[in-house]
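Q: what sequence does this backbone want?
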């Protein structure tokens, strides 16, 4: 799927999600900790989004032969998953996990 205008497989993107760690030198330390926490806490959902995105792009390619789905701005948001942040936090706490 896409990284910018490049094509990348969901499997590779999932590996990137698992390895993502933004150093504090890249921005305000609290913000970087939050971003890193969010990627860890919602890794499963982010990975699922990669699969949904691939299905959307494949369906688009089937119905629009000869066009580049990564160049179509109508595909900016390819998938969506609802996340209950409070329930996730409660799950971590009940499992005795301070952080994911």
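A:
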């Amino acid at each position: 799927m896409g990284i910018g205008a490049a094509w990348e497989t969901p499997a590779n993107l999932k590996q990137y999600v698992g390895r993502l760690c933004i150093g504090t030198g890249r921005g305000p330390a609290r913000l970087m900790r939050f971003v890193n926490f969010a990627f860890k806490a919602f890794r499963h959902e982010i990975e699922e989004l990669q699969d949904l995105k691939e299905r959307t792009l494949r369906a688009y390619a089937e119905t629009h032969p000869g066009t580049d789905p990564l160049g179509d701005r109508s595909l900016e948001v390819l998938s969506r998953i609802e996340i209950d942040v409070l329930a996730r936090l409660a799950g971590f706490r009940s499992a005795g996990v301070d952080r994911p």
